[in-house]
Amino acid sequence: MMAKNKEPRPPSYAVSVVGLSGTEKDKGNCGVGKSCLCNRFVRSKADEYYPEHTSVLSTIDFGGRVVNNDHFLYWGDVTQSGEDGIECRIHVIEQTEFIDDQTFLPHRSTNLQPYIKRAAASKLQSAEKLMYICTDQLGLEQDFEQKQMPEGKLSIDGFLLCIDVSQGCNRKFDDQLKFVNNLYIQLSKSKKPIIIAATKCDECVDHYLREVQAFASNKKNLVVVETSARFNVNVETCFTALVQMMDKTRGKPKIIPYLDAYKTQRQLVVTATDKFEKLVQTVRDYHATWKTVSNKLKNHPDYEEYINLEGTKKAKNTFSKHIEQLKQEHIRKRKEEYINALPRALNTLLSNLDEIEHLSWSEALKLMEKRPDFQSCFVVLEKTPWDETDHIDKVNDRRIPFDLLTTLEAEKVYQNHVQHLISEKRRVEMKEKFKKTLEKIQFISPGQPWEEVLCFVVEDEAFKYITDADSKEVYGRHQREIVEKAKEEFQEMLFEHSELFYDLDLNATPSSDKMSEIHAVLSEEPRYKALQKLAPDRESLLLKHIGFVYHPTKETCLSGQNCTDIKVEQLLANSLLQLDHGRSNLYHDSANIDKVNLFILGKDGLAQELANEIRTQSTDDEYALDGKIYELDLRPVDAKSPYLLTQLWTSTFKPHGCFCVFNSIESLSFIGECIAKIRAEASQIRRDKYMANLPFTLILANQRDSVSKNLPILRHQGQQLANKLQCPFVDVPAGTYPRKFNETQIKQALRGVLEAVKHNFDVVSPVPTIKDLSEADLRIVMCAMCGDPFSVDLILSPFLDSHSCSAAQAGQNNSLMLDKIIGEKRRRIQITILSYHSSIGVRKDELVHGYILVYSAKRKASMGMLRAFLSEVQDTIPVQLVAVTDSQADFFENEAIKELMTEGEHIATEITAKFTALYSLSQYHRQTEVFTLFFSDVLEKKNMIESSYMSDSTRETTHTSEDVFPRSPRGSSLDYNYPDSEDDTEGPPPYSPIGDDVRLLPAPSDRSKYRLDLEGNEYPIHSTPLNCHDHERNHKVPPPIKPKPLVPRTNVKKLDPNLLKTIEAGIGKNPRKQPSRVPAAPPEDTDQSDNYAEPVDTIYKHKGFADDIYAVPDDSQNRIIKVRNSIVINTQGEEENGFSDRMSKSHGERRPSKYKYKSKTLFSKAKSYYRRTHSDASDDEAFTTSKTKRKGRHRGSEEDPLLSPVETWKGGIDNPAITSDQELDDKKMKKKTHKVKEDKKPKKKTKTFNPPIRRNWESNYFGMPLQDLVTPEKPIPLFVEKCVQFIEDTGLCTEGLYRVSGNKTDQDNIQKQFDQDHNISLESMGVTVNAVAGALKAFFADLPDPLIPYSLHQELLETSKITDKTERLHELKEIVKKFHPVNYDVFKYVITHLNRVSQQYKTNFMTADNLSICFWPTLMRPDFENREFLSTTKIHQSVIETFIQQCQFFFYNGEIVEAPNPVACQPPPSNAVQMVEPMVPLQLPPPLQPQLIQSQLPADPLGII
């Protein structure tokens, strides 16, 4: 208590506010402002200021505790701090006179003195009197703050005399002044300080104020303060001045005139208002409410200052105005957006100038309402105007309110739209007309300056119309097109003439004579002359090409990123192959694994919770399970993470398994979607087979935070998903547990992962390690041409899709290993995939057992490169030629493809190599068995090849210099593949593209000779037949090879020691050189048996041996048939390579030659370029083949009915492989004629034709039903629309449009990119027109059902037989109307597009006939299993041709047109170099020969259907 008493208390003063009071008669209608002055001083905040205070009270209110039967009010106290920092407390008393509301006379009080005497009293007393706040407080005191007058009594220390200087309310100022004078006299007697407050100065009457000042000037020390309670001006100054008079120690305040004080106060208010408005302007949403915003701003100093000065009401008004401005601004912006979007809408709905050119705006509005796309552009609102509806808040609805179109702005936009269409139409027409004019000027050559052409077009109408910039832009575009085309054709020409360049001496620069020879040969080509004006560019291209020949690397490859080497490395890097070694280390011993990498997937933090629980049960990340310690590496990732797929498998973290945790139906569904994405990403895009089989485990979290009734549902749903995903499900164990995860669950899940790791290791390594990884039984090189129109994936898929495929040694990025059973043992085959330029770059340095030479049947350059490479290959090395095209139908429909396939087949025949074809649209080629027989042939000749390699190395040691191209003199280049007899006038017949070199499966009759390997593939028990195909060695193979003996060389790899021992052992046993073997010639006098055996061995005789017998034993019996110059005996149970040992005993020695001396095609092609001065052999001497070829009829494989041409209706155009056959004669087919006749009326079976899936990735768009891709507003699929628009904008005049295939990789990329983003721009992708055209065809090919339904095919067929043209067309028109509406709209769109393409036939050479050939299989989906369908293919093609020709008649009610002359649009013949000897064309059978179909062959040998 004493401490409290010692605290200094601020001085306290009581101020009495007095002034004119009384009845209305005395003071007028209103008071002089005493109450307002007190209110503003005591409670200065605007929200606490009440401008109305009444003195007329009821008796009850007068007797209440606030008034307390007194004629004075206690306003409370104010603590004030002076400038010197000294505080004081001021109690405010207002002396007034309360009037009875009944009698309108003053209430009777305890003090009956008149007001003047009462007001001058210095002692006031009223027990329990409450502080007065406002009039509403009277009678409701409990609802307001209750504060008593201190101790019920106060001593007045000073007086504040209020004088109203306003006009007054029915009151005379003189009477007031008289009353004030009397009051002042009475106050003076108290000897207390007095201050005059001139109130209501905001409504001041000047002479009243002057009178007050005059009154005060006559008094001693009487100060006048000009105040305004309403604006809070000088109110505080009054009381401060009075306190100073009571306490002389305080500084004397400066009395400021009203106007100056008012300006200061208003400046303060304005500043606060600006700050508050800026604060309010931070609100940008006009939906915000004052309640929300004020709560958010209430602690902000600017907000509080404004509220104190101006009050909440004004603040709310300010906020409301701002919100209204925001709304109006939003409406203005929306209107602006609508007006700006209106031209796009008009372009969509009113794009046809012919329709709207003469329409008024109101007529155009009616026309727009009828458009099908009207609802997608405009919205008709129920309530108008639009800016007073909730449509303004629908920011995602970009549709334009229809009532907005009635404005003048919209009408003006329409008028501008019409004028723009008129001018743009004219401009585009003139630019295109000028472009066509340039195209017609024949003398415009690549590189010709614009100035030279200007004089020829100066009078052209189109040139005069367009601007100079447009004309130069059109000419520049024309020049770029012809220059780019000319350069591409020139580069392609150089590749076609590969023999001219790849005979260069790579150790010396080409001589001037050689360059002259190159120019002399090329100068005959039109493609060479086309760049006459760009001679420097042409020379640069030529030198660049020669430089590439000298230094061929993937970095300098002329195909850029399309280099085969780059694509092979990328493909192998992204596949499972390079992970094989990593997996071998990671999962090598699953029983002894001591570190487990776990990926934990969950939603909303569940993954992290499980990881924390596992770590809790671990010690330093080591987990004890079943008596063993495992080191755990945990990676928890939230399922919502955008980096989920990138975090899953990194170079530093390769998971053994994935825990997927869930605790709700939503999280379980989310987990299922994530797993599907992971597997799809791994199996389709990255080709990661192990990641596709990554072990997943579903774990149910304990439901401790929710009701237990959800647990059975979650358990059931989790088990269902686990069954679907084929993964374990870990349930919540029985019992009650306080944590989300139980130790039992974690151990169960971890055991599952360890078991899966062991299982995966067994799967990815199905065969125990046979040999060291560095050792391969066979080394095969596959060569492909850079830039060929097929993907590397196509030619590698037979290997990559095999489970026996694995990665090669580290550092060999272009090699892979195959584990295949060949003969009776499993062999390791190393396949090295190289470009031709990489293969040619290094010659004769490494051992190669065989070559697979791939070329595109669509590209002459590909064949040219193959010829150049093959010419220099040693003829001891087996060769497999592979032609690649889209489908078998290409052979029948495209003469260029037919010619190249025939040439490849012809070369294979001449060198007795194997020949096959792969089809990009077929799935059958994705089997390793395509090359099984070739591998068998290579294995048979392995010892011979290695012996030849070693002997060749030995011969090289005796040479004084190294021959890059070894010569082949006549004496040592006897044709080792053909008989030595001089009268042997028949060589092997030409190969057929359909034969038995490649067999996917053997015939049932031959199954006894085959055994299944671990993949389910059949392989022969005994060695392959004696069918020696002599081949060359390649020049670049990665496996390590020992340098050749005694020859100092650089950069030559070492030979494998084990391989060297094998070769030396073979040489030791066989001191003589390997003689040639004789292939079985076509039999002339054979048994009519259906069964043919393949000879296992041959006994060779000297040249003089006269036995003219062939021996070809049957599989089951040994029958001797006449064969020339040899006897072939069927010996069962021979060892795998035993024939090599027997061959070593032959009579003579033969030095390996080159294939160019065995093939008349290769030799003649090379000889046409330059003279071969280093060879003694003449053209005729170099060949022992006959000039007269036996015309053999082509057939399919006798062993494999799938490959038989008489069964072409089974395989269709996607027959997996066409191969060569030399053994069939006409007699054999005659024997089977009766079988075919019995099957003339086969039973019709209704089958659903499922086309092969072309895509290798999952898509939610492509392959979907057409109905799922369109809407009533968008009847055309967006992808089709984009492709057609791109083609018509950029390539409508492209030669061979839809006939020339685009790059398949580009086609796939187009579809993949569209899958990810439907708004992708094809122009930005930089793809060719042909690639887009191919992607468009692929879209229709992938549809589940053809665009033209099967159900209408028969009607179309019958209608096409109507002879009268007019009647036929009208019937066809009725059939088209039967299409499903969706199909009809798309069919109409496509046919209209094809009609536009055909109209450009003079430049693109694609008539309606040509287009129908290309498109009818796509639109009608030919079912090659239906023989009747195949017999009418030409009719169906003619139907599509009719639709294209008569497009206007069928779809636009046009007139019937006459068909154009198809001859006029044929492409000009190419000027390719003619071969010395014309090729024998492939005699493939027509697509349909139903009379030859063998009924006894199994209906579906592969189980495809």
Description of the structure:
This protein has 1505 residues and is an alpha/beta fold. 40% of the residues lie in helices and 10% in strands. The protein is built from 56 helices and 29 strands. The protein has a 7-stranded mixed β-sheet, sandwiched between helices. α45 runs antiparallel to α48 and α46 packs across α48. The longest helix is centred in the first third of the chain and has 38 residues. The C terminus is likely disordered.
Number of helical segments?
56
Mean pLDDT across the residues is: 75
Largest sheet: 7 strands, mixed
In angstroms, what separates the terminal alpha carbons?
A: 107 Å
Q: Percentage of helical residues?
A: 40-55%
Q: What ranges have pLDDT less than 50 throughout 5 or more consecutive residues?
A: 581-591, 763-773, 958-1149, 1170-1249, 1461-1505
Shape: elongated
> What is the number of strand segments?
29
Radius of gyration: 51 Å
Provide the spatial order of strands within the biggest beta sheet: 20-21-22-19-23-24-25
- Which range does the strand content fall in? 5-15%
User: Structural class, please?
Assistant: alpha/beta
Jot down its keywords.
single chain; 1505 residues; alpha/beta; 6-stranded mixed beta sheet; 56 helices; 40% helix
Write the layout of secondary structure elements.
Blueprint lengths: L1 H5 L5 E8 L4 H4 L6 H9 L13 E2 L1 H5 L8 E10 L5 E9 L3 E2 L14 H5 L3 E3 L27 E3 L2 E7 L8 H16 L5 E6 L6 H12 L5 E4 L8 H12 L11 H23 L9 H8 L3 H10 L1 H38 L3 H4 L4 H9 L4 H4 E2 L20 E2 L6 H33 L9 H8 L3 H5 L2 H29 L1 H4 L10 H11 L3 H4 L5 H16 L13 H10 L6 H7 L8 E8 L3 H12 L4 E4 L2 E11 L5 H5 L8 E6 L2 H21 L3 H4 L3 E5 L9 H16 L3 E2 L12 H22 L13 E7 L7 H9 L4 E3 L7 E8 L2 E11 H6 L8 E7 L3 H12 L7 E7 L3 H5 L1 H16 L3 E6 L12 H9 L1 H15 L53 E3 L5 E3 L36 H13 L27 E3 L27 E3 L8 H6 L16 H8 L40 H4 L14 H6 L1 H5 L40 H13 L13 H13 L5 H4 L3 H13 L11 H7 L5 H12 L4 H19 ...
Parallel strand pairs: 1-4, 1-8, 2-5, 8-9, 9-10, 11-12, 13-15, 13-16, 16-17, 17-18, 19-22, 19-23, 23-24, 24-25
Antiparallel strand pairs: 3-4, 6-7, 14-15, 20-21, 21-22, 26-27, 28-29
